[in-house]
Input
Amino acid sequence: MFSAFLALSYSCSKTDDNIVYVDSFPEEKTVVAKDAKWLQPYNYHGMLMVDSLLVISNVKGPHPAFQVYNANSLSLVKEGGTFGRGPEEFLSAASLTGQFFKDKKTSERFFYAYSTGRKVFYTVSLDKLLQGRPFVVKKNKLSKQLWNQSFLLKVGHSLIGNSPGTKGKTFCYDLDNTEKIDKWDYYPEIDNISQFSDQQRYSLNQKSWAFNPRKQLLAGATGTYFNRLIYCTPEGKRVKVVSLPQKEIKLTKHNYDNFPDYAGIIIASGNNIYRVY
Output
């Protein structure tokens, strides 16, 4: 699979009505992916790098729910978690938020996962998983008001994400009060939004999220129809919209010919945002 990772800056841009138009990317790289034969041939649902360790969440099956690989030695370090209906089992694949943190006193490492089937948000200890001990250290209930929740991100004690049940709009709710849901809509400057198809409207609001704790800013990438970033505060106040250059990138290998021109995924590292096409 071929992807281009693009580092964003605003040196080549113009501004109009609170929208920043980026004409070109100052840095652009093409990555040619190769088969990772050192990984077990399971169906992967999500991946997360923590230091030199690659955490993988697997699709439901007879195999473990999680695997941890050493990315330096290209070897399997540990597996853990089972699928099933038991109280400590995973009903379906656990989605990863892409976040991890370390306890300042003990240096224990944690990451977040969630199950829309069980409607549970998990705090997982990576170190306990590596030790073969019970590794889910905390469970929070997801809101029952939303039938589907995707691209979840934990900011403070709140969850931010998207749901088709809200016609693609972004939602936010406190983990201690999952019944009170705020819904955000960011595109008042689009006058003809009512003429969009449901799929286009869903693409406009459905976002892959990144969060910068130091700047207290969220960035969300729209889907395949609209090549934009939206910046907002954790309270949902829109800061600005960034319109990105159109990229004519086609995937022509392995029957990917029908993929969209851009996929709408972003990855954050430090102060940089990387857009995956």
